[in-house]
UniProtKB/TrEMBL annotation:
The keyword RNA-binding does not apply. Pfam families: Radical_SAM. Residues 53-182 form the Radical SAM core domain. PANTHER family: FORMATE LYASE ACTIVATING ENZYME, PUTATIVE (AFU_ORTHOLOGUE AFUA_2G15630)-RELATED. It comes from Fusicatenibacter saccharivorans. The keyword Nucleus does not apply. It comes from the Bacteria. Keywords: Iron, Iron-sulfur, Metal-binding, S-adenosyl-L-methionine. CDD domains: Radical_SAM (cd01335). This is Radical SAM protein.
């Protein structure tokens, strides 16, 4: 933490002595909510919910972020590694299907230790690493054997979009390397008799307004590289929040036609392992309250 290199930005912030880097994260762990969550893919949430921990700060901080309050460190509480391990066990006791780590990239080392502690104390449910796809391979390797499911975004194949929307022009190549490491660790997806994922990789793509070409390129790369080894999750739930009201085309919802064009292309490639969203889903009600619950 004295010269932080845990994410691809490698900004070198001295987090150990109170300095913050791009992610705005402290040296400890800051989290804004820990509770059962029912709005993930069906194989993650199931009927009893995913034990989800929302971490504060982010190494991307996309301009359109749906969780911008925690990404910008406006919400959250600093907790110890021991408390984090206890939270994992508390969620398991609530009958969570898994432990779901949301935006964990900048806390990899702390999470690693908390998982070691929790597993010694009886944590047995699968662990989900739910991230933006902008990951350091070295950081992911530090988690080898501790993560069962990678639920990762693949936001951009267009580096110009990545630069404008997420200030990460190197996102496409970085995400490719990270995804390769995720697949290496988990292999092909495994489900139980109830359809819950126990091991594997899900690649999410949130279709942005005006960005069908970028979305098609993401699907093409993932499917041509990994085939049915990974599952795709194609999302149409983009919700334009106040911070993008003056940024076109982000200040509108994704249209039904844009999403249909993406699905038509996906099916034309032969993709069968995919989660889709049907009906009107672009609602702020999908965004939980970051009120410190469970922390």
């Amino acid at each position: 933490m004295s010269r932080c290199r845990v994410c691809p930005r490698k900004c070198g912030a001295d987090r150990e002595h109170g300095k913050t880097g791009y992610c705005k994260a402290p040296s400890g762990v800051a989290a804004a909510r820990a509770a059962l969550h029912f709005w993930e893919e069906p194989c993650i949430s199931g009927t009893t919910g995913s034990g989800t921990v929302f971490f504060s700060g982010c190494n991307l901080r996309c301009v359109y972020c749906q969780n911008h309050h925690i990404a910008e460190m406006e919400s959250g509480k600093v907790i110890s590694i021991g408390r984090l391990s206890d939270i994992f066990l508390e969620l398991q006791a609530q009958n969570a299907n898994n432990i779901n780590l949301v935006t964990p990239s900048h806390y990899v080392l702390q999470i690693r230790e908390a998982l070691f502690q929790a597993k010694k104390k009886g944590l047995t449910v699968p662990v989900v690493y739910n991230c933006g796809g902008y990951e350091s391979v070295e950081a992911l390797q530090a988690l080898d054997g501790l993560i069962d499911i990678y639920l990762t975004d693949f936001k951009y194949m267009d580096s110009s979009l990545a630069k404008v929307y997420s200030r990460a022009e190197d996102y496409p190549e970085t995400a490719k390397r990270a995804l390769a490491e995720m697949v290496r660790q988990t292999g092909e997806a495994v489900f139980d008799e109830n359809g819950l994922m126990k091991k594997g990789v899900i690649v999410r793509h949130l279709l942005l307004p005006g960005a069908v070409k970028n979305a098609k390129a993401v699907v093409k790369y993932v499917y041509e590289t990994y085939g049915d080894t990974v599952w795709l999750s194609l999302m149409s739930q983009y919700t334009p929040l106040p911070q993008v009201e003056n940024i076109s085309p982000l200040n509108r919802k994704t249209t039904k036609r844009e999403y249909e064009r993406l699905l038509d292309y996906t099916f034309s490639l032969g993709v069968t392992n995919a989660f889709l969203q049907e009906g009107p889903v672009a609602e702020e009600s999908f965004i939980p309250e970051f009120d410190g619950r469970g922390i």
